[in-house]
Amino acid sequence: MSFQTPTVRKLSAGCGAEVLGVDLRKPSNSDMEIIRDAYRDYGVIFFRDQQLTPEDHIAFARRWGEIDINKFFPANGEYPEIAEVGKEKEKKTNIGGGWHRDLSYDPSPAMGSILVARVLPKEGGDTLFSNMYAAYEALSDGLKETLSSLKAVHSNAMAFGAAGFYKNSDQSAGFKGENLIGQAVHPVIITHPLSGRKALYVNPAFTTHFEGWTPLESRPLLDFLYAHAVRPEFTCRFQWREGSVAFWDNRATWHYAANDYHGSRRLLHRITIGGVPLG
Ligand SMILES: O=C(O)CCC(=O)C(=O)O
Ligand SMILES: [Fe+2]
Q1: Were both Cys, which of 12, 22, 213, 267 would link to 6 (CB 3.0–4.6 Å)?
Q2: Among all residues, which ones are annotated catalytic?
Q3: Is position 278 within any domain?
């Protein structure tokens, strides 16, 4: 039991917050309420100086919902619930090295992930996030209106298929499931299931086109949205330290893993929590 009240401190005006003064091995009910509110309000939250074993990581994740076991990433041998997000020192390709939200190609896309630092480079390897509520809110009324009637197709083939990015990179040996590709259709603007707020939902890694439009017709508007969505005002940048934990909401944010630590190893443990269909 912790007797301290956790403090929530924004990481930047537009995105993310640190929740300080909580031990994730044994959060009290009131700690959980503060964490839940911060998660809903900021889209991504960060913790410092944690000491989570893999079992603690799994137990904390289970408090949020069912664990989604990743079809593509290498699992940690002993714990199938934990995906290994890593880059060995001789590799050049990292995981998540472009702006994206995870798993938007699933019909019920994952709620979010809890990422725990295990091995960090001496410098570099930050993770950036962008707030898709802010991105939506900053659009003109005219474009909001146009987007509100559109749906988009999301596919994992470009990233995880046999001809996809990872299978044709120096990370290919670690990836599996290239025969499990699939797609889903979601509204371009979702109403977030926890906050009730509207958020932009297309993303550069997985969205292929607007439903009923060709990929070529879709490209210019998607490209505009992708450039808009990562305006610095909507983003924050998290510097990992030993003991750091990030917990993001895939529906409310995008993320980007900076690939600026060639020659060093980096390893994080990720647990993903299942989600619901989006409307
Ligand atoms: O390594 C990171 O910082 C994030 C990688 C990523 O995109 C993910 O785990 O979903
Ligand atoms: Fe990711």
Answers
A1: 22
A2: 100, 102, 255, 270
A3: no
Each residue's pLDDT tens digit, 2-54? 567 899 999 999 999 999 999 999 999 999 999 999 999 999 999 999 999 99
Q: How far apart (Å, rounded) are the C-alpha atoms in residues 177 and 242?
A: 31
Q: Please report, to the nearest 10 degrees, the dihedral formed by the alpha carbons of residues 63, 68, 69, 73 taken in order.
A: -110
- CA atoms of 205 and 43, how far apart (whole Å): 19
pLDDT in tens, 158-210: 888 887 888 888 888 888 888 888 899 999 999 999 999 999 999 999 999 99
CA-based torsion, 77, 82, 83, 89: positive or negative: negative
Whether 1 is in a domain gets the answer: no
Please check whether residue 187 lies inside any domain of the structure: yes
Residue 246 belongs to domain spanning:
7-273
95 lines ligand 1 (CB under 6 A): yes
Residue 237 has pLDDT above 60, yes or no: yes
Rounded Cα–Cα distance for residues 152 and 150 (Å): 7
Give the pair of three-digit tokens for residue 1: 């039991």
Cα 96 from chain centroid? 9
- Give how many domains the chain has, as a whole number: 1
Q: Which amino acid is at 66?
A: E
Kindly state the helix (H) or strand (E) to which residue 228 belongs, with its residue range: helix 215-229
Label residue 242 by pLDDT band (50, 70, 90).
very high
Q: Which of 76, 255, 266, 273 is the best mutation target for the ligand 1 pocket, counting ligand atoms within 8 Å of the beta carbon and taking the most?
A: 255
Does a structural domain hold residue 279?
no
CB 101 within 8 A of CB 254: yes
Q: The domain that contains 144 carries what CATH number?
A: 3.60.130.10
Joined tokens for residue 30: 């009131």
Q: Which residues surround ligand 2, an ion (CB under 5 A)?
A: 96, 102
